[in-house]
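Here is my example:
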Amino acid sequence: MLRIFLVMLFGLLIHGKNDSLLWNENYKLSWKDFKAHPRLEVDAVALTVSGISFSYSLSQNDNEDYRYQTFVEAHFYPEKSWYKAEVSNNHILKHEQLHFDLTELYARKLRKRIAETTFTKQIRSELNQLNDDINEELKITQDKYDFETNHSINIEVQKEWEDYITKELKKLRAFRLISYE
């Protein structure tokens, strides 16, 4: 099966916020969220396109000390994500949700690393490197998830991944994005 992940890097945001769904622990994806036309020429049953958006702002005081603010969000892109209705089911939807959940997990990991890092005067390159590193780790984990679950076919391993992702999200709960809507 085919799997694509859109990684959003600083300064390369392709989509506006209205073109994506922000990860929310109280919202689970439904098939209506997958709006792209399915690629019939591939064996994949569904495709989730998700990614981490990352940006920051910097200011420097008279002592040349930097103050910074970072923005890290996990997004799902409906206009890029698709499914084949005739062969999709709730089990596959749950598998796709976990791809999005993994994206949120790595967004939290990035927020944690930023919070725990003592930056130098090379803060820009250090922030960008943290982002690059986390996105590479996310890609490796997404591929591992698909490989180990055989794209959701291995139900026992799928359940192990569900438990693992749930546990890891809880461990990093302090680094979730807090919304004041």
User: Anything to note?
Assistant: The chain has one domain: 17-175. Confidence is low (pLDDT under 50) at residues 1-17.
